[in-house]
């Protein structure tokens, strides 16, 4: 996996969720987000 900043990681995850073809990529990104302790969405 390419080394990404926290912001790039969250943006890539959001884009992968919008795309129906990137389910495996979204899962990998979600795992990395949880390892870093990030929250990909704001609480509203």
User: Any idea what the radius of gyration is?
Assistant: 10 Å
Helix tally? 2
Specify the biggest β-sheet. Answer: none
What is the terminal-to-terminal distance?
Answer: 31 Å
- Name the overall outline: globular
Q: Please provide the ordered H/E string of secondary-structure elements.
A: HH
Tell me the structural class: mainly alpha
Task: Write down the overall mean pLDDT.
Answer: 86
Amount of helix: 55-70%
Poorly predicted runs of 5 or more residues: none
Protein name: Sporulation inhibitor A
Pfam family, one: Sda
Explain this structure.
- It is a single chain.
- Helices cover 61% and strands 0% of the residues.
- The protein is mainly α and 44 residues long.
- The protein has one domain (6-36).
- Helix 1 runs antiparallel to helix 2 (23-36).
- The protein is globular, with a radius of gyration of 10 Å.
- The mean pLDDT is 86.
Q: What secondary-structure arrangement, pairings included, does this model have?
A:
Blueprint: H1 6-18, H2 23-36
Helix pairs in contact: 1-2
Organism: Mesobacillus persicus
Pfam family, one: Sda
InterPro entries: Sda, Sda_sf
Short description:
The protein is mainly alpha-helical. The protein contains two helices and no strands.
List keywords for this structure.
2 helices, 61% helix, 44 residues
